[in-house]
Specification:
heterodimer; A: alpha/beta; Transcription Regulator spoIIAA; five-stranded mixed beta sheet; 4 helices; B: alpha+beta; Beta-Lactamase; Phosphatase 2c, domain 1; six-stranded antiparallel beta sheet; 13 helices
């Protein structure tokens, strides 16, 4: 069975919000991340960084959510960045060429720095 | 020449075609049997089930219907898998043959033919006529299927989900061939598929090839797959190239599904004169180019984002095939299939299996059938995700193996 997905949010500064996910992101669990992102947007977040270091698996349901969040962020004049993806998740993102849509950063620190600089 | 025999066969063909205008799907098997009675023949038509593991007999009026026969380990199965007519060992002076039944080159099943006298023209001519008969019945089964549910029901070992109904009705035949190329696909789990699909078009000197995998599960994935496939076909039908086909699918998906439902896909065109392959890879696992059972390269260029997500920066990639090269397209349900312990099927195992089959001389549809069953067996039961394989063989020898051939082979053997 898929592990339970948990997400915590940290407002770094102004529009930059880091969402730290832990667990598998799939069709059934992705709404947990979706709701956390919605709350982040609600409270003024625009530049989202999703920390995927604790995510061993992501299926097309998760990928579809990333695309939606990217769109929502861009509509608000912001961005979506993914950070710390494990090899399994990174390979899904590169095979699907979604790394052409939003950047993958090795670490959260690098992603936050890029988000702040934007 | 055996003119009287030839005339009787013509009469039988004429009778079958005459009856086919008005027969119902449930009358097809009895009608064929009645039409060939003038030849002293008795026929039982067997259809392969969707999962391609067993052959299932169509009932004939006034006769007991035999139980399904497994493809693995049976003579009937061998005739089916090899597309080759095979004699049965019979008691008394009856001759019995398992004759492969195809529609074009799409394997539909086998016909069990029993006859007391194979006629003055000899065994080879008799078997070849039986293969022609089976080919005619194959065409008629395909067209008659649409008139009712009977033939489709006969092919099913269980009920089919709404998503599977949607998909199977829009897919082309699993196998098609022209004189230079054969394309053969397989899709699992057949009674409960989601967003996988494939398409091809063999027109003029170009083979158009498509594999796709729409995001999501069940019917919602099936709908996205249907929209993407229809969009690609519409653009291709209007004479548009790969970029426009992808763009048409982008627009259709974005319009129908505002929730970012995309489909990964490979769209390709193989020039059968030159071997030049042009392709776009929309976020899909890279197809494999194989030669003599060895991997030549993964087709990892031509990258763009999945269909549904506009990506104007994409560039069409090009490679050149050598004669007899194979292309294997697959969806991630193949390589991501896992054992209960979590071990992935993986691309290495896929290549190993294709290598092993390369020298076997099996017809393309049989290679993909075995690959698909290896994937299902690896998972030890019902797959989590759709798994689709599409094999392309640019080879006249591979083509010849998809056409019923025992009649020809024996004719050669018997030539004076």
């Amino acid at each position: 069975m898929s592990e339970h997905l948990t997400v915590s949010a940290e407002h770094v500064t102004g529009p930059v919000v880091v969402l730290t996910a832990a667990g598998e992101i799939d069709h059934d669990s992705q709404s947990v991340l979706g709701e956390a992102a919605a709350a982040a947007f609600e409270s003024g977040g625009r530049r989202l960084v999703i920390d995927l270091a604790g995510v061993p698996f992501c299926d097309s349901g998760g990928l579809s959510l990333f695309v939606r969040l990217h769109r929502q962020a861009v509509e608000r004049g912001g961005s979506l960045r993914l950070a710390g993806a494990q090899d399994s998740v990174r390979s899904v993102l590169t095979i699907t060429s979604l790394d052409r849509m939003f950047p993958l950063h090795p670490t959260v620190e690098q992603a936050v720095r890029a988000a702040l600089a934007a | 020449m055996d003119e009287a025999g030839t005339a009787r066969w013509l009469d039988a063909f004429d009778d079958i075609l005459g009856r086919s205008h008005l027969w119902r799907p449930d009358q097809l098997a009895s009608s064929v049997d009645a039409a060939v009675a003038r030849l002293g023949m008795r026929t039982t038509i067997w259809l392969v089930d969707y999962e391609q593991t067993a052959l299932r007999a169509l009932p004939v009026a006034g006769r007991e219907t035999p139980a399904p026969v497994p493809i693995e380990g049976s003579l009937a199965g061998r005739a089916f898998t090899r597309v080759e007519s095979l004699p049965m060992v019979t008691e008394g002076d009856h001759h019995r043959w398992w004759v492969p039944m195809v529609d074009g080159t799409d394997r539909l099943g086998v016909i069990d033919v029993a006859v007391a006298d194979m006629g003055d023209a000899g065994q080879a001519a008799f078997v070849r006529r039986c293969e022609r008969l089976a080919g005619l019945v194959g065409h008629l089964i395909t067209t008659t299927s649409e008139r009712g549910d009977h033939l489709d029901r006969a092919r099913r070992s269980r009920t089919m989900s709404t998503a599977s109904q949607l998909l199977w009705r829009m897919l082309p035949p699993l196998t098609a061939a022209s004189d230079r190329v054969v394309v053969s696909a397989v899709l699992q789990p057949c009674y409960d598929v989601g967003g996988d699909g494939f398409d091809y078009a063999l027109d003029g000197p170009v083979a158009h090839l498509v594999i796709l995998d729409a995001v999501g599960k069940g019917l919602s994935a099936g709908l996205a797959c249907a929209v993407a496939l229809a969009a690609v076909r519409a653009a291709r039908g209007a004479g548009h190239g790969l970029h426009d086909q992808a763009a048409t699918a982008d627009a259709a998906l974005a319009e129908q599904f505002p929730d970012a439902r995309f489909a990964t896909a490979v769209l390709a065109e193989l020039d059968l004169d030159t071997g030049r392959l042009r392709y776009l890879n929309a976020g899909h696992p890279a197809p494999l180019q194989l030669r003599g059972g060895r991997l030549v390269r993964e087709l990892a260029e031509g990258r763009r984002m999945p269909l549904g997500l506009d990506d104007p920066g994409a560039e069409i990639a090009e490679v050149t095939l050598e004669r007899d090269d194979r292309l294997l397209f697959y969806t991630d349900g193949v390589t991501e299939a896992r054992t209960r312990a979590g071990e992935r099927f993986g691309v290495t195992r896929l290549i190993d299996l294709v290598e092993r089959h390369a020298g076997s001389g099996l017809p393309a549809p049989e290679v993909v059938r075995r690959l698909a069953h290896a994937v299902v067996a690896h998972q030890g039961g019902q797959p989590d995700d759709d798994a689709t394989l599409l094999l392309v063989q640019w080879s006249p020898v591979a083509v010849s193996k998809t056409v019923p051939h025992a009649g020809h082979a024996q004719e050669k053997d018997e030539a004076h």
